[in-house]
Amino acid sequence: MPRKAAERCIACRTLGDRRCWKEHCFWAPYFPYGQKEEEFSMMHEIFDADFVRATLYRIPDNTQEGKEQRHKAVESFVWEARIWKENPAFPPLAHFLSAVERVKELQSNINNIISFKTEPFIKPYELQVEDFQGSTVLIPHRYPLLLYRLAWKKKKK
C-alpha cells in the first residue's frame, strides 16, 4: 500500500514517485523520512538522482559488505555535491590535493619529532663550574650565581 505524501522519504517526494512503498523504496535506507533532506536535494541537483541510482545498482547489495559500500558511495556523492555547491571554481580535486599536502606536512612534522627524540640528550640546564678545590662541578642553572659565589668565597679563604 502506498504511503501518504507526508510519510514518503525525501527522494520520493522530490522525484514525484507516488508509488513509494516503505519496504521497497530504493532511497529510504540512504535518506530516511524526515532526515537528510538538504543532502538529497544537493546531490540530486548536482548529479541527478537517476545517475546516482544507476551507479549504485552496479554495487551488489546481497552481502553486508555490498550494503556498506553502497552507503559509502552515497556519502561520497553527498560530500562531492556539497563541495561543488560551496565552491564551483575549486572542485573536490582541489580539496583532495590540499588534504594530501596537509598529510605530507604532518608526516614531516612527525619525522622531525622522531629524529629529535632519537638524538643524544644534552642537559641544557646544567652549568659546568670550577669549585674551590680546582675540580669541575655541574650546577643546575637555576642557582648558578649563588653556588658560584659560595664556591668563590670558599676559594678566597
Care to describe what's here?
With 157 residues, the chain is mainly α. The protein has one domain (10-118, 132-153). It contains 6 helices and 2 strands; from the N terminus they run αααααββα. It is elongated. The mean pLDDT is 74.
Radius of gyration: 34 Å
**Strand pairing plus helix content: what structural class?**
mainly alpha
Name the poorly predicted regions: none
Profile the largest sheet: 2 strands, antiparallel
Strand order of the largest sheet: 1-2
Question: Terminal Cα separation, in Å?
Answer: 109 Å
Family: Belongs to the LOB domain-containing protein family.
Organism: Tripterygium wilfordii (Thunder God vine)
Pfam families: LOB
Domain LOB: 7-117
Topology, pairings included?
Elements: H1 10-15, H2 37-47, H3 49-57, H4 64-86, H5 92-118, E1 126-130, E2 136-140, H6 144-156
Antiparallel strand pairs: 1-2
Short note summarizing the structure:
This protein has about 160 residues and is mainly alpha-helical.
Tags for this model:
157 residues; mainly alpha; two-stranded antiparallel sheet; elongated
